[in-house]
Specification:
The structure is a single chain. By secondary structure, the protein is mainly alpha-helical. About 75% of the residues lie in helices and about 0% in strands. It is elongated, with a radius of gyration of 22 Å.
Length: about 180
């Protein structure tokens, strides 16, 4: 963690510069939670590299907001929520990448990739509206709206496929 936070007069960090002093209470929080955070991220994300990246991103976000987080009633709960959101974001990125590699005979996956990001996110997450909203930082009604709009955009793909299958069945019955 220390090696990535550097003092730079010109706005650019470099490994040859002296590390910024981290708040002692932040360092203690990092040491106490790093292993548990990594275990959680590894379980959710599946690979060590992605888990490490997620935990690193989460701790950097916690550091950027450290003073505000200290004012919260429950610091561990607040920082855990940062980790969960970052891990969820990493999982969404992996899901998006996986969609592009999937074969599709009806054109569903290419249609999914054309959705705006929020609409794709709510389709991928498939949690309750409230839980999805929590992960994305939006209201449950916004989740419902994005889900409805995504379904509207995907409807032509399903409709076209359904019509084609129906026409094929009618053609086979006529022979």
């Amino acid at each position: 963690m220390h090696e990535d936070v550097f003092r730079a007069d010109d706005g650019y960090g470099s490994a040859t510069q002296e590390p910024l002093p981290l708040p002692l209470d932040f360092e203690a929080h990092y040491v106490m939670n790093q292993q548990a955070w990594h275990s959680y991220a590894l379980y959710r994300l599946g690979t060590n590299d992605v888990a490490e990246r997620a935990v690193h991103r989460a701790f950097l976000e916690v550091l950027r907001n450290w003073d505000a987080l200290l004012a919260e009633a429950n610091l561990p709960q607040q920082t855990w929520s940062v980790l969960r959101r970052v891990v969820g974001d990493e999982a969404l990125c992996a899901a998006r990448d996986g969609i592009t590699a999937m074969p599709s005979t009806i054109g569903l996956y290419p249609a999914l990739m054309k959705l705006p990001q929020r609409q794709l996110d709510v389709i991928i997450l498939r949690y309750s509206s409230r839980k999805t909203g929590w992960y994305l930082g939006i209201t449950a009604s916004s989740v419902d709206h994005h889900c409805r709009k995504a379904r509207e955009r995907l409807a032509p793909v399903y409709h076209h496929h359904g019509t084609t299958a129906q026409q094929q069945n009618e053609k086979e019955e006529g022979q």
